[in-house]
Amino acid sequence: MSDRYDFRAIEGKWQARWEAAHLHHAPDDDARPRWYALTMFPYTSGDLHTGHWYAMAPSDTAARYRRMQGYNVMFPIGFDAFGLPAENAAIARRIDPKDWTYANIEHMRGQLRRMGATFDWEREVITCDPDYYRWTQWWFLQLYRQGLAYRAEAAANWCPGCHTVLANEQVVDGRCDRSDDVVERRFLTQWFFRITNYAEELLRFDGINWPERIRTMQTNWIGRSEGAMLDFPVDVAGVEDPLSVFTTRPDTVYGATFMVLAPEHRLVDRITTGEQRPAVDRYVQETARQSEIDRLSTEKEKTGVFTGAYAINPFSGRRIPIWIADYVLVTYGTGAVMAVPAHDERDFAFARKYGLEVIPVFTHEGTNISQPLESAFVDGEQMVNSGTFDGTPFASAKQAVIAHAEREGIGRGTVNYRLRDWLISRQRYWGAPIPMIHCDEHGVVPVPEEQLPVLLPENVQFEPTGQSPLTQIEEWVNVPCPIDGKPARRETDTLDTFMCSSWYQIRYCDPHNQEQPVSPELARKWLPVDQYTGGAEHAVMHLLYTRFFWKAARDMGIVEGDEPMLRLFSQGVILGPDGNRMSKSRGNVVAPDELVAEWGADAFRCQLMFVGPWDQGGPYNPTGMQGIIRWLNRAWSVAVEEPQFAELAGASETRSLRRVVHRTIREATADMESFSFHTLIARLMELTTALSRARDAGPVDRAAWNEGLRSLLLMMAPLTPHLAEELWERTGGSFSVHQQLWPAFDPGLARDEMVELVVQVNGKVRERIQLAATASEAEARVAALASEKVRQWLDGKEPRKVVFVPGKLLNLVL
RNA sequence: GCCGAAGUGGCGGAAUGGCAGACGCGGCGGUCUCAAAAACCGCUGGGCCCAAAGCUCGUGUGGGUUCGAAUCCCACCUUCGGCACCA
Q: Nearest nucleotide by C1' from A249 CA?
């Protein structure tokens, strides 16, 4: 046989055969231990790009490896199918979003099949399918029942390009993460999920193996601060409630010489005096006109206006002015701060500009606090100017002040978070309708569960108006109130699509269940996900939301355990050949379909895995395909062109071949465990070379050859599933190579007999000597001193010290 | 500004205290061929040297620890990522 590797003849053939044999379906009733491997499902953009391949092919390799280790592996796939592009396509091209989406899915299914991945298509989910979003709506109702969904007016991020509000997580540097438009601040009544209820728990990552990078990003995003809430009475007739402020420095409260409110703060209008009103109104309007980007710039000089009103410092009793300034954010804490210019840089800058009083309340080494301060200082030695607290050391000051505040009922120790509740309303059409009804008499009423799904109406006008297109469909909007049947109106906003993806991994376990989102038995069998893989761009969106969702589901008794994904691996970003992100405008897009058509799926998979460490990503090297193709050709030739056989069971060349084989298994197994696919491929290339050299060198022991070839094909199976299957069959293996066990290595056979021992003199390599691997220090010394070269370097001296690393090195120190 | 990761041949990268550059690309030389391509084989960090042997330099920069450092420690530079007026 001298035929050559032709992927065209084998890839389609085996894909069909695997499908016919349901090889990739994970049965629910199977005695093997389960392994739930999950790769993030794709958005239905209509085209599978290189980034998808880069994410999915290695995930598939890892999943196949687990199967060869004896697990019942579930590796499902589906489509994240709701979202704006479908609607924008509808507007631009006058096609129905549904038609656009399902046509895209059809195309992408073909692309995914040609990848040759072990996807369990019998578990496919499509989030825009009523069978799926019925349960997304169901989840909404459960969260509502738990008090975790609520409607409130708040400062929301409005994207003028997308004509909808966005969650905080979708705003990057003041811009929409999708359209890049500068977001505007609008005060709107919207639906939220109380993710902040779980802030504390979301900061803990106990029992899960997630990358440090993702954990840090989530931790930063949640932004926990310890401090106190302090109440400052307002000295304005008719304002009874005190002004509460959050501070991380309650110990500096005696130095609070003024207060600052965000310009949007509710109290501003009520406390502003007649004299100050024109200036305040002007400032509030100016602030409202500014973009968030300008407003949040730390470069900008601080500005503000006095309201004319005063508050009382509850500790010092001092009457202090209330200002407004745009450096105070209405979205954080209470939207008001106590300003302590002596100990806060921002307050200091503000006080200096407007001539406000500065009172230091700590002593500080190297600072004369009886002189006007040059700058604020944050640490200190002990409290001063603080009444009975004077002399309290810095370290215990916070606790002392908090304890006092709690005793007096003027404040309390608290923890504040940067994390805001998750805004889930969207003023767009292509999403799951929020299953609520507004009734004049009964307020907001949930749609009864048996009426789910609330179907999206069809034939809708999409031209963006700033309101959901659903508002215009009278026959859909007008419904009877579920309580008394009187005329009422449906909620017309749709759900953030991140809600659809927050629970998809749960639905995969029981995708066809018509009674429940998942049966308790199947949830228990498959969940949580053992290995999740996906991009780091979802760190504070999808990956945070799905953890929140899971914890809420746990508290409702639907799932068990504290975390939805036990292990997470975040792959890097595959870049264009020029080192930039692939984009049509740059013209550096690498199209998978073309490469698959030219070189085959196996080769493309390997090329992507050979780029470098998976978590680092990097530029795609167009010429790199050659190396992979050469390897696959050599592997083909090694499998189909037998050597001359002879009985050489104990011969040294046999031992040496077996050593390479067993060592490769050892290393390849470690590489699989650590997702080090590039070094794994390198090792298999070496094994292929070793086999072909052994064959060309003369007669080979039959058993050793078969062991080596068989091991090579088994280890290639997760990487090149089609090629391995074909060669497995040609070399007499039974269907399927993917149902075989991963090879085991014999440490004894992997061990070296002879080693090249490095001899160093004063730490520099001067000689290499052949020695039995088990040689002792004394033996190594004798062998080293037998070398003329070593003796020359020793120059007749006796080594002062000898370092011996068995099997590796002997260092003679003079 | 704060936090984190990274920096190694012409290129992607390997080696996480013990032979720097595995494996691959590219390059050079060869086999085959009328020729080219493909395939296969060999060589391929810099310097000294006709060459080899050999010596020497070499993992962002400068110091340190160690018999021995790409690897550990300190300082700095650069790149990337995250957070950033969060009180």
A: B87
What's A782's domain CATH number? 3.10.20.590
Nucleotides of B under 7 A from a protein CB: 3-5, 11-15, 18-20, 22-26, 39-41, 55-56, 67-69, 81-87
A260 nearest nucleotide via C1' and CA = B87
H/E run at residue A9: helix A7-20
> A495: part of which helix (H) or strand (E)?
strand A494-495
CA of residue A678 to C1' of nucleotide B14, angstroms:
10
Residues near A55 by beta carbon (within 8 Å), at least 6 away in sequence: A39, A40, A533, A534, A535, A571
**From the centroid of its chain, how far is CA A328?**
31
The pLDDT value given to residue A628: 94
Q: Are A401 and A436 part of one and the same domain?
A: no
Domain interval for residue A99: 1-124+572-751
- Name the DSSP letter for residue A742: P
pLDDT, tens digit (0-9, with 9 covering 90-100), for A289-323:
887 777 777 777 889 999 999 999 999 999 999 99
Q: Nearest nucleotide, C1' to the C-alpha of A812?
A: B67
Task: Count how many domains chain A has.
Answer: 4
Q: Which of A497, A523, A539 is the last residue of a domain?
A: A497
pLDDT over 70 (residue A679): yes
Query: Positive or negative CA dihedral for A597, A598, A600, A605?
Result: negative
Distance CA A566, CA A477 (A): 42
What gap in Å lies between CA A661 and CA A643, rounded to an integer? Answer: 17
CA distance A108 to A737: 27
Residues 6+ away with beta carbon under 8 Å from A452: A134, A137, A138, A141, A435
Average pLDDT value over all residues in chain A: 92
Half-sphere CA count of A102, side-chain side, radius 13 A: 6
Q: How far is Cα A802 from Cα A761, in angstroms, rounded to an integer?
A: 9
The answer to whether A6 and A629 have CB atoms below 8 angstroms apart is: no
Interstrand relation of A184-193 and A149-159 (parallel, antiparallel or unpaired): antiparallel
Among A156-170, A664-678, A725-739, the minimum mean pLDDT is found in A156-170
Mean pLDDT, residues A666-695 taken together: 94
Distance, CA of A765 to C1' of B41, in Å: 31
ipTM score assigned to the predicted complex:
0.94
Distance CA A117, CA A57 (A): 7
Which residues neighbour A781 within 8 Å (Cβ) at sequence distance 6 or greater?
A802, A804, A810
What is the model's pLDDT at position A802? 87
3-state secondary structure of A627: helix
Other beta carbons within 10 angstroms of residue A102's beta carbon come to: 18
Whether residue A235 is found in the same domain as residue A348: yes
Confidence of residue A765 (pLDDT cuts 50, 70, 90): confident
Q: Identify residue A304 by its one-letter amino acid code.
A: G
**Are A644 and A734 part of one and the same domain?**
yes
CA–CA distance, A16 with A22 (Å, rounded to integer)? 10
Write out the DSSP string of A427-461: S-SSSPBP-EEEETTTEEEEPPGGG---PPPSS--
Q: How far is CA A293 from CA A173, A263, A325, A333, in A?
A: 7, 16, 16, 20
The residue behind tokens 């992408």 is A108
